[in-house]
Amino acid sequence: CSLGGDELICTVESQGLECSSQQTNKLLIQGGIVVNADFQQQADVYIEHGIIKLVAPNLKAVDGVRVIDATGKFVMPGGIDPHTHLAMPFMGQETCDDYFSGQAAALAGGTTMHIDFALPVDGNLAAGYQAWMKKAEESCMDYGFHMAISKWNDDVAKDMDWLVKEKGINSFKFFMAYKGSLMVSDEEIIQGFKKCKELGAVPQVHAENGDAVEEGQNRMIQLGITGPEGHSLSRPSMLEGEATGRAIRLAKFVNTPLYVVHVMSIDALDEISRARHSGQRVIGEPVASGLALDDSKTWDPDFKIAAQYIMSPPLRPAGHKEALQAALSSGILQLVATDHAPFNSTQKALGKHDFRVIPNGVNGIEERMHIVWDTMVNSGKISPMDYVRVTSAACAKIFNIYPRKGAVLPGSDADIIILNPNATTTISAKTHHSRIDTNVYEGWIMKGNIEVTVSQGNVVWEKGTLNVHRGKGRYVYMKPFSYLFDGLDKLDATYLTSLRAPVHRAA
Ligand code: URP
Ligand code: ZN
Ligand code: ZN
Ligand code: ZN
């Protein structure tokens, strides 16, 4: 499907029809294996007005109900991508997918909701929220926001209150890298973590030591290494491990849950593993690219190819992705994101003579569901039920929107995919729906094809065709105090009673 310019895929709109006139709002998916994170069964799924009404074997269709045959296929919750950057200004550029093109791509790949990172505008969170709401007017699927914290003061604390209590945001990201732009200090992290805990919002970290990264970059330049390979050489995995360990210890000190985004290395996952082993509530999020790719392509002599693979933390040498896959299958890591931050080749070319200014980010919002199926399920590393857990259910639970999202259950939103395990799909920039002109998975043939995507009860992807509508996406409010916060007060009380009474000494 080629996307010409802006008006891409809305077949209904292009015929000048009302969106809803082409869709029956009653749908019966028959004969498939319905997979949830904790149960799978042969069953039919009946949907009305965007909500799942029944999940049971042998449902009969009546007049006015559209029937989809899913015999031999898996019927699962649509994917939730917990980490995307649509229309994000970053490193002097803006990611080339806006809310419409990025979400259309997501739907074509079986993702029916994403949580995007809103950035403050000049440090102002409220302005950042408004700016992201404006971008999201183009939406064609459901979405929520995380908010980044780029400095600390009373206004930031007040805006966090407002965003959590009134605007449905329940997570905040702290960048420990990108010195001079988004990076925050340990002092700011401690204050921010305390505020998150008070509000029941999940603190998230981009864990790399930004001061050391700067030193590493200077070293590369001094050595005359200015090409894309200098990127990963300048920020080795030990710097990711250090920052991950530091964030984990600060979270323990504050007694708050912690969510580590884009875990890319053995060093970071070892820190997470140790913390979880000791009972600490740490969530680790690998991304599709980190699970499936290594850094080898960043040595490609063709700059255009090498630059595509530049992201932070960087793709790592062979060995790391296998460890991340193992950690995902054993439960050390909990859910898979994409960190979709697409920059096209002209944007990447700005760093042709200096890797430090190549805009960081890779594509993935359209590919994640297929990559995880192929890499993890086809290889036998996880089961279809685990697949549902790591692609949707765990995310819905962490961000407190389960079982509205992340489940095929009566009462849940009708966001559903039908995956044919015997069909294949080929990934290419020539056929994908994102606006990016390259694809880090170019030419990959994946076994397992998401043949149908249902979003809000409408069939939006079928027979290789999208049928999506600008403005149809809904902002999903996410309440604070997810399960991750249950019992923290008891741990606080234990800490307090463990302190010895102050000693009174004679003057
Ligand atoms: O390279 C990346 N990851 N770009 C997006 C910004 C971020 O750090 O998540
Ligand atoms: Zn990041
Ligand atoms: Zn990111
Ligand atoms: Zn439309």
Automatic annotation (TrEMBL):
Q: Which residues carry this modification: N6-carboxylysine?
A: K173
Q: What is its EC number?
A: 3.5.2.2
Q: What is this protein called?
A: dihydropyrimidinase
Its needed co-factors are: Zn(2+)
Q: Which Gene3D superfamilies match?
A: Metal-dependent hydrolases, Urease, subunit C, domain 1
* PTM comment text: Carbamylation allows a single lysine to coordinate two divalent metal cations.
Family, per the entry?
Belongs to the metallo-dependent hydrolases superfamily. Hydantoinase/dihydropyrimidinase family.
One GO MF term, please?
Answer: metal ion binding
The UniProt record lists the Amidohydrolase-related domain at 74-460
Transcription listed as a keyword? no
Concerning InterPro entries, the annotation shows: Amidohydro-rel (IPR006680), Hydantoinase/dihydroPyrase (IPR011778), Metal-dep_hydrolase_composite (IPR011059), Metal_Hydrolase (IPR032466), Metallo-dep_Hydrolases_sf (IPR050378)
Q: Name one GO cellular component term.
A: cytosol
Arranged from A to Z, the UniProt key words for this protein are: Hydrolase, Membrane, Metal-binding, Transmembrane, Transmembrane helix, Zinc
Task: Give the matching Pfam families.
Answer: Amidohydro_1
Under the heading NCBIfam families, the entry gives: D-hydantoinase
Q: Report any one BP term from Gene Ontology.
A: pyrimidine nucleobase catabolic process
Assembly description: Homotetramer.
Q: Catalytic activity, per the record? A: 5,6-dihydrouracil + H2O = 3-(carbamoylamino)propanoate + H(+)
